[in-house]
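Q: What would this complex look like in 3D?
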Amino acid sequence: MPIYAPTLPPAPDLHLGQPPVLVLMRFDFTRLWRQKIGRFFGFAFLMLLLWKVARIYVDHLLHTNEAFKPMQDFAKTILTQGADFQADLLNPASYLLWFLVALVGGGLVARDTLYRVRPLMYAHPVAPKDYLLAKLGFASLLPFTILLPFAILPWLMSLLLAGFHGPVWATAPLRLLPAMAIASALMGSLAVGASSMAATPRAGIGWVLGLVLGASTLASMIHGLTGIAAVDALNPIMLAEAWPQLFVGVERPMVAWLPAFLGTALHIALWTFVAAKRTRPSEAVI
Amino acid sequence: MIVLDRASLRYGPILGLSPTTFELPDGGGITGLLGPNGAGKSSLLQLLSGLLPPSGGDVRVFGQAPFRNPAVLARLGLVPEGDRLPTGLRADRWLRMMGELSGLTGEALNAAVAKALETVGMADRAHLTFTRMSKGMRQRIRLAQALMHGPELLILDEPFNGLDPEARLTLMALLRDLAEKGTRILVSSHILGEIAQLTDRILLLFRGRLLAEGTVTEIRQLLDRHPVELRLTGEAQVLARWAVEQPELAAMRMEEDAVVISVRSPRDILPRLQKAAAEGGIPLRALDPLDLNLDAVFQYLTKDHA
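A: Here is my prediction, written as structure tokens for the whole assembly.
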């Protein structure tokens, strides 16, 4: 029978309460929500979303209103159509999203390194895998959560305005959601891996941007020198944009299925491995 | 409560802690972990708090191996070295998160946070962000996070670093209070005075080896090579004349108003000295043991093993 200090509460039952992964993820989300950066990006993405939804309505008007008939042909030349249009629902936000992931994800692990929070956590019933999963989960859920209304709202709008014959396919969410999940996992793992290599949150942001832009530049150079298009699968920006294209079946996706699969698997495996190594208890010396 | 059986820790080719064996019993009390920088204090604390597995030997806390063992971790609290905490965060929110990581929820969590804040005297300032807190306040919040789940074993690594004297005394009083209420506290420091003020029971580490364990007096008695120095204040010449007749005398030096004698067996000479002074045989005004304190024990032990 353990002896407890008489004035302190008894030791908690470990089977109660939320799993540490959820506790840590929720803490990171609420922390982001309270920060100015969260509000700024919230506003920016909201504007983009409104533009997307407005476009659906404009598209609807072009097809149904006689007054806009003369403009239909012109609109077809400047606005994407068919599969490209479906994939494009997610794309305009991608650069801004990478920037957000770098700003937020760059500090995720680096902040805990700087303030030596990990030894404190590991001295609680928190396993290193809980910590890693929480960080990966947060960094991946963040872009997914932001992309979710971009896939759902235009689809709903299209359904409401034109039923199954609207500009957004009735099956679009089924195609876009898996693509978003893969792209988000790619962004999250890269951000957490990069952040784990940094000693400060600012350095973490630098690492994420450096890795994303560095890998993109490298891929472009090798592509240019060798002419092998599959090398573009090393480019994480291109990969994130390619997955929606692949799932909706655009004619000429940025990266083909196999290179996209291999490139994404390589990135996720590599950066998860790096993050796992860098967040081991032995790295969290007290 | 704690049992180490030839437990060692390596960082690659570097030996952080040589095979070490000791036991700490159940129940409350404070034990000081003493040693200069690089002695292996933090390595030992990492083993005990389950951050690292031993490279060799066995570590048992509450009868189980602590490494990645939630059953052990739920019963211990750790306050690592340093006072840095994530800037911009409110202390109470951070504490709630740490409490949840220990499995506390709902009312139990609220009560634990309130109780821990009250214990460390931060109940009215917990809404502040860490940026707006002094070092002492941050240190108390770190202690609060270790106390929330009612640990039976509290491990503190250099908790007094950077604290002003007042904050230091407050923290010491707090630790004594916790120990009296049944918490076993293991506190590391490289400052002898801090440990001496806090506790008499020490574990002394030097260059990755456990040199001594026990009370200062017990350890001092084992140091036969070093005679005990006593300063006898009074008429120096008369005192010196008495001292040279004593068989335990190893060395002697004169001071202006005193004589300092080194004796091999103070237990034998002290009763005679007391008797002589009481009978008026020697003009003794004061008796001061010079090297029965922690500083002297530490110096002798580290010099012997250097």
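A: To summarize the key features: Chain A has one domain: 20-283. Residues 1-12 of chain A have pLDDT under 50 and may be disordered.
Q: Very helpful, thank you.
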